[in-house]
């Protein structure tokens, strides 16, 4: 039977958005490959405590705060590894590497070093996902007004848009989504189209976002670069994970105008539901920019919002 090993690894991000990778030293397993700093969880230790210890031993830094992010499993020749990835939110000290051949600060969109450890491919893809997702409601406020709000938000820092227009005809959705893709491109923002992979492809969007009902009946992953889904329960989140989806959106955290009367999770309920999942999960429901820290403390990748995303015009 393959040995099972728990490993804790940390994403240490600089203010310019670059994250730290280390190159495995000669004489170790997969020498020369690049990894996130971290190491094995010892018996009786929590993954978070293991990471704090490893970052002190490996890099000489004192970590003040880590936030759970993703948990992925990978079967290597030597062991079945369960990797607990954390966001290293606060740390102190000077980096002094004691174990790697080299360290490098890398960008998620244009990584300069390689090869990465085989388990880390999806992690790098997850790091390309922006933290804030703006969700459209053009059918409610009018296409022209929505496009102008998108334009304003893109000029600020919006990098991820979900076109969600369940009441639009296919023709109107195609035209609107095509326009969103056109305005988003120069800003390097990703666009996902809710509910229709064919339209997503036709307009050159980056991906498709599946409503929960479509997720439940999905047999094969749509052929889009990015595939995400809306989830409300642990079973739906596990379904999204089992289908190899790139992200999920989970809500409602707080009451919303879109779904009045819907039961809410609060941050405690949200944190319970997302624990141990392999893909990033956005928090949704009654949230605004100011909620980002609470969301990430609860284990969210970021925040998704309809009303909270758009600067009123
Ligand atoms: N630290 C870290 N380990 C990773 C990443 N991705 C990945 O697959 N791993 C795997 C490789 C190893 O099997 C394990 C890390 O264990 P480790 O670095 O403590 O130990 P090791 O196998 O090199 O050897 P040792 O401690 O027994 O000397 O997790 C990553 O990004 N960071």
Automatic annotation (TrEMBL):
Domain Nudix hydrolase: 2-131
CDD domains: NUDIX_MutT_NudA_like, TMP_TenI
EC numbers, comma separated: 3.6.1.55
GO molecular function ontology, one term from the record: hydrolase activity
Pfam families for the chain: NUDIX, TMP-TENI
Gene3D superfamilies, per database record: Aldolase class I (3.20.20.70), Nucleoside Triphosphate Pyrophosphohydrolase (3.90.79.10)
Keyword check for Nucleus: no
Alphabetized UniProt keyword annotations: DNA damage, DNA repair, DNA replication, Hydrolase, Magnesium, Metal-binding, Mutator protein
Keyword S-adenosyl-L-methionine applies: no
Top class in the EC scheme: hydrolase
Catalysed transformations (reactions): 8-oxo-GTP + H2O = 8-oxo-GMP + diphosphate + H(+); 8-oxo-dGTP + H2O = 8-oxo-dGMP + diphosphate + H(+)
Source species, domain of life: Bacteria
Cofactor: Mg(2+)
Family per record: Belongs to the Nudix hydrolase family.
Protein name from the UniProt record: 8-oxo-dGTP diphosphatase
